[in-house]
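Example record

One chain of 212 residues, shown exactly as stored in the release files.
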Amino acid sequence: MDNTFRPIHFNRAKLCGQVVTDPTLSHANHGEEFCRFFVSVQRLSQQQDLLPVVIARRKLEDTPIQVGDTVTVTGQLRSYNNKSGVGARLVIDVFARQLLRGEGQSLNLIQLSGTICKVPTLRRTPLGREICDVILAVNRRYGRADYLPCISWGAIAHETAALAVGSPLTLEGRLQSRTYNKALADGCEERIAYEVSVMRPADPAEFFLATL
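Predicted structure tokens for this chain:
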């Protein structure tokens, strides 16, 4: 029997932060309604990441929340294409499978294992720091996949940049938000982008049986 470990794709997210917007209807799917709200999570630098969470309305009925509450969200990082023409084309959010209300320390932890689906781009910031942009495809069940933008820094950026399209990659990081200006026909519009800031690459066996 071949006992060689064969990595599978996985996608885990856990946030603990403060609710900063009331839940509003996001969409309906197969007769079930889903709501979106935003959570503010503090970095070690004291900067805040403003992160979108999507959750089934029925779960909010079991655990009602309001602005100012501290919540812990456990779920997955999801992506989809915005075809409305308004706002960012690639939409990222945390899909909540579990929601707990109560005090807790700030937490922003993402664990992903997937496949590189676009040639990594190594570049320098205006301050001269090397970074690498990469898109990681993480399979869901039933043939769908999430395409998740990731960014690595320094030595990890060089490791990532050396990987080819189709290479497997397992990583641990955090979901960060950043604002940028989008040039439009009638001026500029400030938007928010989301990406996984890679803290470290990992052996998939390390996370295979682990739970957040």
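Notes: The radius of gyration is 18 Å.
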